[in-house]
Design brief:
This protein is mostly beta strands. Strand 4 and strand 5 form a beta hairpin. About 25% of the residues are buried. It has a single domain, classed as Beta Barrel (Porin), CATH 2.40.160. It has two helices and eleven strands. The strands form two sheets. It has an eight-stranded antiparallel barrel. The protein has a two-stranded antiparallel sheet with strand order 7-10.
Length: about 230
């Protein structure tokens, strides 16, 4: 995954270099007058997890703390953009396939235990995009909206036990997204680097009756995502 991130950064630097060379020349002047645009996105992500502990069990249990370890992930998906006006677009991101990993680190009085949580999400997002006025070949923008995710790698059906600890997330979750980016108009396409925070509503943890979930009230997955959009 790290090599994919390096290639993504190299691509970004190359595009920025060619963009600044063509700064004085207006590109795609009629692009924003088209009603519908299509494109694709490449994304790098870092999965986070908010853990709400059941502190009432601490005096009676052996679990002292639960921490979270995040890992880099990748994503790929499609874009359908509907032009609403000079400064507004409605954007459908679907389907977006994202691979995410977050591990839970359990601390016991005399030992530690790591439980892996790997996810392969198919995401559908509906976003409202507000764009600034165009300045030569550039617009800045903010986006926000809702997100529906299905985890094809959910482990709720796997066998588990005290010697085989598994912490599962429910397959279907929903939440919100908010972010910002920069539209850059090249000669033949529009390129947009974007940073976005994705948060899940409610409790995404599957409770199985074992110590590894009994000590947790709720798990709330989050995602910090850096995307390169091509339209």
């Amino acid at each position: 995954m790290l090599s994919v991130h390096r290639r993504q950064i190299t691509l970004l630097l190359l595009l920025l270099g060619s963009y600044w060379q063509a700064w004085a020349q207006p590109n795609l002047q009629q692009y924003d007058n088209r009603r519908i645009h299509f494109g694709f996105t490449l994304a790098a992500n870092s999965g986070r997890m908010l853990v709400d502990m059941n502190s009432s069990l601490f005096p009676y249990d052996t679990v002292m703390n639960v921490g979270v370890q995040s890992f880099p992930g990748i994503g790929l998906g499609g874009i359908l953009n509907l032009h609403l006006g000079e400064n507004f677009d409605l954007r459908l991101m679907a389907p977006v396939i994202s691979f995410v990993q977050r591990n839970l680190m359990y601390t016991f009085p005399n030992s530690k235990k790591e439980v892996e949580i790997e996810s392969a999400y198919c995401d559908v997002s509906l976003l409202l995009k507000y764009k600034s006025d165009r300045r030569k070949n550039t617009r800045v923008y903010v986006v926000g909206g809702g997100r529906l995710s299905y985890d094809f790698a959910s482990t709720i059906d796997k066998n588990r036990g005290l010697q085989n600890p598994i912490v599962s997330l429910v397959p279907l979750t929903y939440g919100w997204e908010v972010g910002f980016g920069l539209d850059m108009y090249f000669e033949y396409f529009k390129f947009s680097p974007e940073v976005k925070l994705c948060n899940t509503f409610g409790n995404a943890m599957y409770r199985d009756g074992y110590i590894f979930t009994d000590n947790i009230n709720r798990l709330n997955p989050q995602l910090i995502q850096f995307s390169l959009h091509f339209e």
